[in-house]
Input
Amino acid sequence: QEAVAIAAHAQDPGACDNASGVAGVCEGAIALAWALREGAIEPPSRSIVFLFGDEFTQSSMWLDATSRKPIAGISADMLGESRERTGALPLLERMPDPGAVKPLAPDEHTAWGGRPYSAAKLAPAGLNVLARCALLDVAGIEPAWETAEHPYEGGSDHSEFLGRGIPGVLFWHFTDFAYHTSLDRIEHVDADELRRMSVAVVATALAAADPRPADLDRYLRANKEERNLRVQAALEANDEELAALWRTWTDGARQWLRVECLRIPPEELAPSTVAPKAVPTKE
Output
């Protein structure tokens, strides 16, 4: 009765946007079904739902209709761009964290651009960590693969989940010179790139659908590394308020990861592991 959703919108007519996203998610569903049927992997403890339809609408309709508890939403958009032919880099758009409130290097927004985001709206979770680890795992198999991530900007199905208090991330490519033009054609799709990004999408969904105690140490180490990086950057910028936001965020992400991997009800966590409330920025 719990589910992780992957959404790939089908109404955009381009080869990259978003035929590549639909194709990658379809192939991911087929591969997952095969692996389950052949016993190559164990069935996840939560359902994985595949959504295809109009962007935004497909997710809001499912969220309105489902009897399952949504755990996370993953948007699969523009998965297959050839970097050589389009210049687009494979990206992870994180769910809103303090980088969306105030990005500091190494963070920067894409050409899509960020929007003002209030620190009071931040709801810490560890989905960013799961997605980042999935990208790193794929890069471990193909070391030449270069990816990047950026703060939350919105603009696809993950926003529908986030708007209802459900963690959500976006896997995509940007900036593509052919974006939303008639030049978005099949020759711009790189089959190897599509496979890499699709694997990362499905791996993230599986990680969220079946978190296990053995996963926790890796996630906590990744979360601690982010905490050290972000807090140090904020302190070097003489922004103690932002440093406090990142401490609060990573404390909350740590709590979320422990709850998920250990299946401990939040109320049973030791007081020291419960994240304090977010510190709002000054108006």
In short: Confidence is low (pLDDT under 50) at residues 272-283.
